[in-house]
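Suppose a colleague, Dr. K., hands you the sequence of a protein chain of 239 amino acids and asks what its three-dimensional shape might be. Before reaching for any lab equipment, you can write down a predicted structure in token form. Begin with the sequence itself:
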Amino acid sequence: MYTQERTAMANLVVGGPVAVNSYDNAIVAALVENRPVMLVHAFNGGYLRPAELAESSHDKGVKLATALDPATKDARGHLWHITPGGFFGQRPLYFIESAAGQVTPPPAGTADADAGRGDDGTPKPQRRRVTVHQDAPQSTADTLQVGLPAKVADKWRGKNGATEDTQLWVVTVTPWGGITFVPITHPDAILGFKDHAVAKDSEARLTYNWGGDFTGTVINTFYPRLPNEWDVPYHHVFT
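The predicted structure, expressed as tokens, is then:
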């Protein structure tokens, strides 16, 4: 199995005080290898997906789906990249980027080549990121949007002039093998759901973190899943 070959990554610490061992294969794949994963909720096994899959959509949110339909799978709407984005103190920060609508940018030297280049010299793919409203988590401004940094609305841009401010997240690894997302602009909140209801088509939003700073609660924990692990109960994956 894939995890048996990863003993060198035992006790890797990512984003928090909990050690990620070599058996947490999907967490290692998501945070270290930047492989696309499904984000499956701990409560009902539903997965996160953009409300709108098209690459031209930048003002729609995120929802929880309980069935993986062919259209979503074909568009890679069930997959996310958790991409490194710097540091907050000693904690690494990440973007939550949708694999749906991913675009390969034009070559360097063209007017639209603004996405940077990877270590191999090739342009980095442009992916829509999960973005937080400046005034969240208030009742009328607590939603999320999935869009490119230059395409989201003004209230989904950073207050200090950096568009990434509202798109960076602390990823906390929980003791039970999942992850919790905390936006750096609202450290007293975590990624949750509208009306605290984890149900089919629930709208993702920010919700107050009653579990404490950067810790989260089990109800707002997501289990990264590699695509081949879909439909595998989480307590059977890491054994």
